């Protein structure tokens, strides 16, 4: 027998035995089976197998399962009947709608939480790079305080001894008071010191960039030079 | 007008038409919330569904769970059943899908689990049978051995092929019905059945060596 022919016949044996083939095909198979002993043995095997499968015993459904099934039927029957009642149907509908809205955001909960956590993480990573150092060069030196300085001394001379004077200079650079700090000066010395400080010009002290009134000690000395 | 009547009340229905009509009545009764229809449906399909689930899962307790799930789904969805397929096809499709879902669940959750429950069944998961006086102990033993071997062979076939094979060879469904149940084309069904048959035949041939051919049920064939 031709090998491919046997393979084709064997593929059709199951349908042949179940009676699902047309008459000419059946006749062809029967003719082949009469001539080919191997295919006939195969047919007998398949027939035995088919019979075995068809006669497999039906297992009885356990009584506990049957009882549960009838319980399910009764419960579902009652549920269907209840659903036909309008008030019950309305309550059920309200419950379903409420559950729907309660569950609406659930699919977004995990992605949203993940997004927030990721944003915190990213912010934590880049936060150090957000620090901008101050550019001191372009700014005013407002952090400094300056003291009173003498712009120009008066041409009046002072003939007395060396003396230490505390001057009070207001915000406009005018001397508002002076106090000799050492020994008791004479009236003439006081007059000369007064002329000296009142006719000299001062730059007022500053604080945070603004001129302010302040006090400062000045030493008045005689310098003697030769030549 | 004295012409021909178009309503032939005496028409004889074929068994298939009668079955289809009975299905339609049952579905209508279920949709009308008839308590008896619920019980009729259970009595009619509990056995086939239970056996199908058992053969697909090889476990009685899983089959019991699947049967309950299947009927719960049927009762909850019978209102949406449009009659585009037969009732049997619809029920079997739910059973096959539930069995596949169950197997997937078992694969994920219950690998290596050992049950401790004592059941009223023998070691092969069968209910203890009542002794039937219709056959001799020898025939009973021989038939039982052959059946056990067949069951063993079926369980050794891949689940994808097994579903098609059981529906065709055990439950006797047509290729079209199986295609509808498994939601695949008829060509795929034929291919799966062919491969399932060959796998089963090969398994049994290996087990029955060195016997030259399968002689599974000598009494039945006679």
Can you tell me about this structure?
The complex is a heterodimer of chains A (227) and B (222). Helices cover 53% and strands 15% of the residues of chain A. With 227 residues, chain A is an alpha+beta fold. Among the domains of chain A are: 50 residues, no CATH class; 31 residues; 76 residues, TolA/TonB C-terminal domain. The radius of gyration of chain A is 59 Å and the shape is rod-shaped. The mean pLDDT of chain A is 84. Chain B is mainly alpha-helical and 222 residues long. Chain B has two domains: 90 residues, RNA polymerase sigma factor, region 2, helix turn helix motif (Rna Polymerase Sigma Factor, Chain: A); 80 residues, Arc Repressor Mutant, subunit A. Helix content of chain B is 67%, strand content 0%. Chain B contains nine helices and no strands. The longest helix of chain B is centred in the N-terminal third of the chain and has 23 residues. The C terminus of chain B is likely disordered. At the A-B interface, α3 and α4 of A face α2, α3, α5 and α8 of B.
């Amino acid at each position: 027998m031709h090998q491919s022919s046997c393979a084709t016949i064997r593929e059709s044996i199951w349908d042949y035995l179940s009676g699902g083939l047309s008459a000419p095909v059946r006749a062809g198979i029967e003719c082949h089976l009469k001539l080919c002993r191997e295919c006939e043995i195969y047919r007998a095997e398949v027939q035995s197998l088919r019979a075995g499968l068809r006669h497999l015993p039906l297992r009885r459904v356990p009584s506990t399962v049957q009882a549960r099934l009838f319980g399910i039927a009764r419960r579902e029957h009652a549920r269907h009947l209840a659903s036909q009642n309008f008030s019950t149907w309305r309550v059920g509908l309200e419950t379903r709608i409420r559950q729907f809205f309660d569950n609406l955001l659930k699919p977004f909960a995990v992605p949203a939480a993940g997004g927030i956590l990721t944003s915190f993480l990213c912010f934590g990573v880049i936060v150090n790079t957000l620090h901008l150092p101050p550019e001191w060069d372009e700014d005013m030196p407002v952090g400094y305080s300056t003291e009173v300085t003498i712009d120009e001394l008066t041409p009046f001379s002072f003939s007395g001894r060396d003396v230490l004077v505390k001057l009070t200079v207001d915000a406009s650079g005018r001397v508002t008071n002076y106090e000799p700090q050492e020994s008791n000066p004479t009236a003439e010395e006081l007059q000369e010191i007064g002329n000296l400080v009142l006719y000299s010009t001062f730059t007022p002290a500053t604080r945070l960039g603004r001129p302010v009134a302040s006090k400062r000690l000045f030493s008045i000395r005689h310098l003697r030079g030769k030549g | 007008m004295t012409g021909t009547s178009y309503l032939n009340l005496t028409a004889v229905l074929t068994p298939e038409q009668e079955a289809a009509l009975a299905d339609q009545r049952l579905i209508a009764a279920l949709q009308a919330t008839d308590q008896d229809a619920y019980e009729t449906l259970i009595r009619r399909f509990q056995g086939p569904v239970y056996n199908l689930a058992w053969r697909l899962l090889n476990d009685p307790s899983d089959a019991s769970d699947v049967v309950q799930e299947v009927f719960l789904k049927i009762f909850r969805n019978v209102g949406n059943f449009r009659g585009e397929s037969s009732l049997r096809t619809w029920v079997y499709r739910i059973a096959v899908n539930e069995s596949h879902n169950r197997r997937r669940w078992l694969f994920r959750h219950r690998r290596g689990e050992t049950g401790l429950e004592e059941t009223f069944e023998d070691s092969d998961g069968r209910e203890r049978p009542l002794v039937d006086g219709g056959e001799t102990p020898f025939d009973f033993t021989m038939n039982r051995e052959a059946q056990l071997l067949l069951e063993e062979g079926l369980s050794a076939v891949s689940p994808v092929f097994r579903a098609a094979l059981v529906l065709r060879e055990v439950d006797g469904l047509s290729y079209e019905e199986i295609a509808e149940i498994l939601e695949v084309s008829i060509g795929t069904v034929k291919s799966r059945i062919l491969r399932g048959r060959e796998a089963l035949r090969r398994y049994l041939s290996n087990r029955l060596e060195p016997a030259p051919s399968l002689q599974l049920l000598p009494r039945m064939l006679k």
